[in-house]
Amino acid sequence: MEANPSLLDTVGVGDLVLLDPLSEESLLQNLKERFRHQEIYTYIGNVVISVNPYQPLPIYSPQTVEDYRNSNFFAVKPHIYAIADDAYRSLRDRDKDQCILITGESGAGKTEASKQVMSYVAAVCGKGEEVNQVKEQLLQSNPVLEGECPPALKRAPSSPGKYMDVEFDFKGQPLGGVISNYLLEKSRVVRHVKEERNFHIFYQLLAGGSDQLLRGLKLERDCRRYGYLGREDPSLPGVDDAANFRAVQDAMMVIGFSPAEVQALLEVAAVVLKLGNVELGSQFEASGMESCSIQDTRAVREICELIGLPESVLEKALCSRTVEAKREKVVTGLSVAQGCYGRDALAKNIYNRLFNWLVNRINASIKVDTSERRKVMGVLDIYGFEIFQDNSFEQFVINYCNEKLQQIFILMTLKEEQEEYVREGIQWTPVDFFDNSIICSLIEDSKAGILAMLDEECLRPGVVTEETFLAKLNQVCASHKHYESRATQNARHVMDTSLASSCFRVHHYAGKVTYNVTGFVEKNNDLLFRDLSQAMWKARHELLRSLFPEGDPQKASLRRPPTAGSQFKASIATLMKNLYSKNPNYIRWCIKPNDNKEPGVFTDGLVQMQVRYLGLLENVRVRRAGYAYRQGYEPCLERYKMLCKQTWPKWKGDARDGVQALLTDLHIPPAELAYGRSKIFIRTPRTLFDLEDRRRLRMADLASLIQATYRGWRCRTHYQQMRKSQIVISAWFRGQAHRKRFEQMKRSALLIQAWVRGWKSRRLLRELKHQKRCSQAAATIAAYWKGYKVTAAQAPARRPGGTSEPWLPVSLWPRRGEKRVGLARREAGSLHPRLTPGLLTGRLPLQTRKEYKKYFRSGASATLANFIYRRLLQKFFLGLRSNLPPLVVTDRSWPAAPYKFLANTNEELKKIFYAWKCKKYRDRLTPQRKALLQDKLCASELFKDKKTLYPGVGGQPGSFQGEYLGLQKNPKYRALHTAAEGKLVLADTVQKVNRANGKTVPRLFLLTKNHIILADPKAAQPKTVVSLSDIRSVSVTRFSDGFFVLHLNETSTVGTKGDFLLVSDHLIELVTKLHQTLLETTTKTLNLQVADE
After folding, report:
1. Is 106 annotated as a binding residue?
2. Would you give the DSSP letter of residue 963?
3. 303, 484, 690, 987: which has the fewest Cβ within 10 Å?
């Protein structure tokens, strides 16, 4: 078979159909050679093989997109863009729904391939504001769901299976889409294997969230503080979690998430993280029964603050369980193991439901609103086949899904290929292939399948364990040739130490996989206690509340929810039905070249195993034995009828006869053709290329003919319109010319008139300004002359020589151009010596003072007063700075105010300085000193001026020690120290007074966060345990003794024996610690009674 030159010009052979000789070794060597030269794509007919390079390659540029746009599939180098372009053009031009199946092992590059397919389709489809918005939303759904994590990283978690239906209109422009997800690995939330990470959103939130956001979510940036994230280094080489978090936020904004929705989503994610920090420990109830309790209430308190739930509701749901039987409800306490299971189940369910809500929210944004007919392209990106050292329930259902996809490939490509040739009556050489339907039946059979047996065991009453499930499998599937276990091997007398007694093995199409049944029943049940669902429904957080609708008491149901296996089986059946309804011509494989995911490394053994179980060699043989292209007679005649004069423009006979006449007229060799009952078959791609080239040339000729005819019609029509329009235009033009000339003359006349009026106005303005200046000058001269005459008339003083002179000396006479006000600015010392004393003392005649008042500024008094006031303030503050009291909190002295008007200011400064001095003192206190002062303050509030013993104890610093027994050092008290580990507040020896005879008995007094324990000092065993909530009050005397009485509630189990009369040498400290602990635990103050009796 001859090939297109573009396929032969590449490294090796671009299409394996052209490989010669054909063998497994030559096929493997061809893939290796192409991989070495970074040619990662290879064809098998219209199917492409992709080898993951584990490094960025420059083959996805915009220029590459243009090279593959509207190109012939076999006329360009093998590329994923060729698959995407062929699928898109078939959908747009031939009106056929398409599906692109992306299969392969985990780490083979399936997720990246799906992104490239979507990017190419978005680049080649139509443009426009609405179209671009839809394309951007479809593309941005990947970062949100994938967490912007490169799938080729070694420690990245497996992506969930995803199927996207992209819907187009009749023009091929995207309208929207629908996303379906399959099997989120939610067990990774609570535990993951070493050298792997949890889901990436947790690391991205902690690394990229702002400090304000983390404070609002009550999170810390260090990942090692959260139990679900592990204690190892969470960073990945080449991954910027902070940048990825910003990309996820931007993608959410593009899709249409509101800021409130993003905040609510992050709050629920923070709740999942904090659930891992909820530590459960064992405790003894008053009845002596052991139960679990919250060790540290901080995590629970922060979770409840985030979701708006009372702490008691969540604590009760985590530590107890409600069982309903015969319309009765019984609340039973959970053990530590049961409590941890419920906590982890809650975290997994919250994250799983949050992810499903996220998918539904994206679907709501990208859904199609129009009711017009739509075309659909489906892109399936789903997990590959997995074979680990320890395979569990997740690997079993993943491999089951891959078996179903392999079954599609077998039915749609190999089996359908052979059956179509037989159906069309065409002779060819049959090729044997492996049909994996027997393996699918082993897993999914409704009666004897493994999933059916697992569901039956989960629903069976009585004790159900993994051992009973395995025994049932050995009984039902013992004769199946693809099932194997230790029991079946023993029956066949086969010794295989690699198969443990708790495992079974399935012979998949990809190889033998050993599954450990441990955890199968638990993961298939996937139970969540009803108390936890109801607690989540009671939260005031709208998003979290919507995730648990079954928690509504009005909608409560006692029906058992479907198992995880049955749900996954139903979703896979729906997926298969969807894929069968579309054109499956675009199936592609992804191959993993090495296990370490290193660039440039090609492991022959690993690739050879994938080549075998993917059936590549059988597919090549089918393609070589058959025909490369086939099409129905009617579409073929419709597409190529313009190549023959007999069939153009319309063929009136049978479609088969028309195709035969067409191909005969084109002189195509008969060996290249085969006429089936309903289709024409073409053997080699070269013949198809030749037909396409002839059609392209003929379409160009027809287009030229249509263009010439159209241009002629358009020119004739245009000439007639121009001839009719010329007469109208001439008439209008002459009229317009005259009107334009008139308007121009009118504008000129108006302009001349405007200039003349402006010249007259400016001349008049100059004359008016001159008259005004003359009037102002005359008024000024007259004013100065009148002032001089008045001054001369009022001055009877004469010169020493007998000549008369005015009151004002010449130096104070108004100068030329000086206003009267300026006279006041001269200094008073420049006045005449005879006038100076009278002017300064104010003893001049009244008329003279009034006359001279106009020569001084009117605001002089206010200016002087302000100057004096500012000078006094400056003096006050400078003096205060050098006279500050010492920085001692007990010294409350303060300088007195020097002026009465500063009294209020001085008092405020005193308060501010004392408050600042106290703050500086508090900042210097150590935590231990601060705690000691708090204890002293509490003791003072309780006993000051009430008990005589207080001044001798409460006033001594450092007198409160808390632990007087040495529980850690004394091995005798080890049991008591273990019982109070992490909760001990005070330990002391007290004397218990017998109320009957007044005798005292020594007892060990232990105060914890929740109880008071009275123990025997000899046996070191608890004698009495009193809950803090059972203490009604405490009574002490006002004297210097250590007597105190514990008054208990009558409803408590210990209260029936009466109150306790005790004597302690550290009474003040004991009652103070009891008051603080009771306030912290129950938020109630201690009822302390001080009396004489």
Report:
1. yes
2. B
3. 690
- Residues 783-792: contacts with CB under 8 Å, at least 24 apart: 784/814, 787/814, 787/820, 790/851, 791/851
Give strand pairing partners of 81: none
- The distance in angstroms from the start CA to the end CA of the chain is 116
Question: What is the pLDDT confidence band of residue 588, given thresholds at 50, 70 and 90?
Answer: low
List the Cα angle 966/968/969 in 5-degree steps: 70
How many residues are listed for the chain in this entry?
A: 1093
How many other C-beta atoms are found inside a 10 Å radius of the C-beta of residue 562?
12
Would you say 761 and 768 are in contact if contact means Cβ atoms under 8 Å apart?
no
Task: Return the structure tokens found at 82.
Answer: 């060729």
The conformation of residue 127, written as its DSSP 8-state character, comes to -
DSSP 798: B
Is 105 annotated for ligand binding?
Answer: yes
- Look up residue 984 and give its amino acid: L
**How far is residue 982's CA from residue 967's CA, in Å, rounded to a whole number?**
13
Interval 925-937: pLDDT, tens: 888 788 777 778 8
Instruction: Give the Cα separation of 926 and 1093 in Å (integer).
Output: 41
Cα angle at 11 between 7 and 15, to 5 degrees?
40
Give the pLDDT of residue 844.
44
Say which range, 94-98, 678-682, 1050-1054, has the weakest mean pLDDT: 1050-1054
Dump the DSSP string for 881-939.
HTTPPPS-TT----PPPSSGGGHHHHHHHHHHHHHHHHHHHHHT--HHHHHHHHHHHHH
> Is 77 annotated as belonging to a binding site?
no
List of E strands, 384-476: none
Task: Report the C-alpha gap between 355 and 310 in whole angstroms.
Answer: 26
Is 479 labelled as part of a ligand binding site?
no
Record the tokens describing residue 1012, joined without a space: 């008071």
Tens of pLDDT, residue by residue over 760-778, are 999 999 999 999 988 888 8
Report which secondary-structure segment, H or E, holds 514.
strand 511-516
Q: Are 125 and 135 in contact (CB under 8 A)?
A: yes
Give the tens place of pLDDT for each residue, 180-212. 887 677 777 887 766 678 888 888 898 889 999
DSSP class per residue in 762-780: HHHHHHHHHHHHHHHHHHH
d(CA 16, CA 35): 14
Is the distance from CB of 15 to CB of 48 less than 8 angstroms? no
Determine whether the annotation assigns residue 108 to a binding site: yes
104 is known to lie in a ligand binding site: yes
Asked whether 50 and 86 are in contact (CB, 8 A), the reply is no
Rama region for 183: left / alpha / beta (φ>0; ψ in -120 to 50; rest):
left
SS3 label, residue 479? coil
> Residues 677, 683, 688, 694: is their CA dihedral positive or negative?
negative
Radius of gyration over every alpha carbon of the chain, rounded to an integer in angstroms: 49
- What's this model's pTM, rounded to 2 decimal places? 0.57
- CA proximity to 803, closest of 814, 792, 811, 819: 792
C-beta of residue 355 within 8 angstroms of C-beta of residue 77: no
Residue 523: Cβ within 10 Å count: 20
The answer on pLDDT for 223 being more than 80 is: yes
Beta bridge partners of 43: 15, 48
Q: What tens digit of pLDDT does each residue of 340-375 get? A: 888 888 998 899 889 889 988 888 888 887 777 788
pLDDT at 504: 93
Q: How far apart are the C-alpha atoms of 649 and 638, rounded to whole Å?
A: 10
Question: Which stretches of 350-486 are assigned E, i.e. beta strand?
Answer: 375-381, 483-485
**Between vectors from CA 153 to CA 148 and to CA 156, what angle results, nearest 5°?**
65
What does the DSSP assignment read for 1029-1093? Answer: GGEEEEEEESSSS-EEEEEE-TTSTTGGG--EEEE-TTHHHHHHHHHHHHHHHHS----EEEE--
Counts for the chain of helices (H) and strands (E), in that order: 36, 25
